TrEMBL record:
Keywords: Cell membrane, Ion channel, Ion transport, Membrane, Metal-binding, Sodium, Transmembrane, Transmembrane helix, Transport. It comes from Microbacterium murale. This is Fluoride-specific ion channel FluC. It is found in: Cell membrane. It catalyses: fluoride(in) = fluoride(out).
Length: 122
């Protein structure tokens, strides 16, 4: 890790967390269900898949966008807290939310990798 890459991650993380806040402010939680967190994590997983397919792992742009922006945009901590808060009131909904996030997140990343894969000319 070089100082340049650390700065890229920090700048990207600042952008990503600001974007996540914008999503949280524009998508209200539905009856305690963490809708904004689910949306941010699924969109982030899709975009991370696209980046993984398009950019080499060692590029500065992937460090900035993937680790920084999308790392700041997606949020495991809010997912964990949201799950625990749901668990206190509705354990079945909490388990469903956790499973849904995991399954749809992986599916979104796979879709992103397929969308991002370079196509061969016919």
């Amino acid at each position: 890790m070089t100082p340049r890459r650390l700065l890229l991650v920090a700048l990207g993380g600042t952008v990503g967390t600001a974007l996540r806040l914008a999503v949280a402010l524009s998508i209200p939680d539905a009856g305690g269900f963490p809708t904004a967190t689910l949306a941010a994590n699924l969109v982030g997983a899709l975009l991370i898949g696209v980046l993984a397919a398009r950019l080499p792992g060692s590029s500065d742009m992937r460090v900035f966008l993937g680790t920084g922006v999308l790392g700041g945009f997606t949020t495991y901590s809010a997912f964990a807290v949201g799950t625990l808060q749901l668990w206190a009131e509705t354990p079945l909904l909490a388990a469903s939310y956790a499973a849904l996030t995991l399954v749809l997140g992986v599916a979104a990343a796979v879709l992103g990798m397929r969308v991002g894969r370079r196509r061969e000319a016919l």
